[in-house]
């Protein structure tokens, strides 16, 4: 009886792993399992304690010898701007490549001789929905597929797949700039608007990081590119076959929606207004992107339509969490910038908007064309007062509540008196001033609304 040898694609490779959170700790453990000599570090004592319990070798890599073949650096830790982490600066100075976990996943696939299809999804907004949607379509059509990356399961926690199977990976700009050999069979660029400029220097730097989604593609691959929101310029000079998509405008040779109906050159695919969670022009573009990949990969039109119809949506993305006084309450906590909030506002006629937190550059100035959709705004967080100044300049009624807990009764009162169609938490700001992340903010909102629903 023969016993298969353990899979050790990284035997002899010395890897420093810095940042031991949701993705970093399982990545370090998987690298050890796959034969790498791993030395780990996290600036937080709690994370170090968890890593020590897991059996990782720990050392403060800001000091002592630095003899590594690669640095796996948590995406949230900068290696260039606004200021490189000291360990990242050491690696860069010594010519040690700074990589993300997806790079190690694809290296393991090469070592195993495995050839699954890999889709990379990026864009300023919509990438989580599109990732989850494409994964749902593939699984519904009978595929073995795994989703992860920046959404959900970290890349090195995913199982190894083979031919006829697929990964659908959400890729942030932080991850894309830390790839060396990874190639996406399907690369999706949904849209591009200012975000994360502190990490990329300026809009040109941000666009360059996003454009890495297309790096190393060839004529056998596809590049799916949104035509609605700033991404079309990135289509220049690509080697892959480009497929244009739009949530509003016909795109010959591509996939698009007109009046809510998803189409391609062969005709109508589905009326998105009949779906569970794909309403609005922004979701039409997300659906077009997922459909472009699925159709190219051979998913039948009927299976595609069924997958679109049954997609349930994601938490914190236009998630209906309850109804109070006959008015729906919507959790769109994932809207951490004004562009994302614009998409949510455009879906409704008149809403009570709960917004604020740690605002991005420009605040909510860009929302001015949609201020007519706001019956009343209730503002929270660090930049609530700055948002209030913008709203006051445009005559939009508003209240500064400060905290989310205070905002909920204020929003309920405003909804009762204004005749708004919905109460919408779509903050146009990050959450770090009051929460551990947009998901914690959304969870708190959902829990508070559901608690009010249960009151007699």
User: Tally the helices: what do you get?
Assistant: 14
Share of β-strand residues: 15-25%
Helix content: 25-40%
Low confidence ranges: none
N/C terminus separation: 67 Å
**Average of per-residue pLDDT values:** 96
Q: What is the CATH superfamily label of the largest domain?
A: Mur-like, catalytic domain
CATH topology name of the largest domain, in short, is UDP-N-acetylmuramoyl-L-alanine:D-glutamate ligase
Largest sheet: 9 strands, mixed
Shape: globular
Give structural notes:
- With 456 residues, this protein is α/β, with parallel strands linked by helices.
- The chain has 3 domains: 14-99, 3-Layer(aba) Sandwich (Rossmann fold); 102-310, Mur-like, catalytic domain (UDP-N-acetylmuramoyl-L-alanine:D-glutamate ligase, 3-Layer(aba) Sandwich); 319-454, Protein-Tyrosine Phosphatase, Chain A.
- The chain is built from 14 helices and 21 strands.
- The protein has helices at 24-33, 45-53, 86-93, 101-112, 127-140, 173-176, 197-200, 203-210, 281-296, 301-310, 338-346, 384-393, 404-418, 438-454; strands at 14-18, 37-41, 70-73, 98-99, 117-122, 145-149, 166-170, 186-189, 222-226, 241-246, 255-258, 261-264, 267-271, 319-324, 327-331, 351-356, 358-359, 374-380, 398-402, 422-425, 429-430.
- The strands form 4 sheets. The protein has a 9-stranded mixed sheet, covered by helices on one side. Strands 14-15-20-16-18-19 form a 6-stranded mixed sheet, sandwiched between helices.
- Helix 1 (24-33) links the parallel strand 1 (14-18) and strand 2 (37-41).
- Helix 5 crosses helix 9 (281-296) and helix 5 packs across helix 10 (301-310).
- The radius of gyration is 23 Å and the shape is globular.
- It starts with 13 loop residues before the first strand and ends with a helix.
């Amino acid at each position: 009886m023969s016993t298969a040898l353990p899979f050790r694609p990284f035997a002899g490779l010395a890897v420093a792993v810095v940042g031991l959170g949701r993705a970093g700790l399982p990545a370090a453990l998987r690298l050890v399992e796959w034969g790498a000599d791993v030395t780990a570090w996290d600036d937080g004592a709690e994370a170090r304690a968890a890593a020590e319990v897991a059996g990782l070798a720990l050392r403060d890599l800001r000091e002592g010898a630095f003899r590594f073949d690669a640095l796996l650096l948590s995406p949230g830790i900068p290696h260039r701007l606004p200021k490189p982490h000291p360990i990242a600066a050491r690696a860069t100075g010594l010519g040690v490549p700074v990589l993300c976990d997806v790079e190690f996943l694809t290296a393991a696939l090469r070592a195993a001789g495995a050839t699954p299809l890999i889709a990379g999804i990026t864009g300023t907004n919509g990438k989580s929905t599109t990732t989850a949607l494409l994964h749902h379509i593939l699984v519904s059509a009978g595929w073995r597929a795994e989703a992860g990356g920046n959404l959900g399961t970290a890349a090195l926690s995913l199982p190894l797949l083979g031919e006829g199977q697929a990964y659908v990976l959400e890729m942030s700009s932080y991850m894309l700039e830390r790839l060396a050999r990874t190639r996406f069979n399907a690369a999706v660029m949904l849209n591009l608007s200012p975000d994360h400029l502190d990490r990329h220097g300026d809009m040109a730097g941000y666009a360059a990081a996003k454009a890495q989604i297309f790096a190393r593609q060839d004529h056998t691959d596809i590049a799916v590119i949104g035509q609605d929101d700033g991404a079309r310029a990135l289509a220049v000079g690509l080697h892959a076959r480009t497929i244009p998509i739009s949530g509003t405008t016909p795109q010959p040779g591509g996939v698009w929606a007109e009046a809510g109906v998803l189409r391609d050159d062969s005709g109508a695919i589905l009326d998105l207004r009949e779906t569970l969670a794909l309403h609005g022009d922004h979701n039409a573009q997300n659906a077009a992107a997922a459909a472009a990949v699925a159709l190219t990969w051979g998913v039948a039109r009927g299976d595609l339509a069924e997958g679109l119809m049954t997609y349930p949506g994601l938490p914190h993305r236009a998630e209906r969490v309850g109804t109070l006084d006959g008015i729906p309450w919507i959790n769109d906590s994932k809207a951490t910038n004004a562009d994302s909030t614009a998409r949510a506002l455009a879906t409704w006629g008149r809403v009570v908007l709960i917004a604020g937190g740690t605002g991005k550059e420009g605040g909510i100035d860009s929302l001015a064309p949609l201020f007519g959709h706001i019956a009343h705004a209730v503002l929270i967080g660090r930049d609530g007062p700055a948002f209030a100044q913008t709203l006051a300049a445009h005559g939009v009624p508003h209240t500064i509540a400060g905290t989310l807990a205070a905002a909920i009764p204020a929003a309920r009162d405003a909804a009762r008196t204004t005749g708004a169609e919905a109460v919408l938490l779509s903050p146009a700001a990050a959450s770090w001033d009051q929460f551990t992340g947009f998901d914690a903010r959304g969870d708190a909102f959902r829990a508070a609304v559901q608690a009010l629903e249960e009151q007699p």
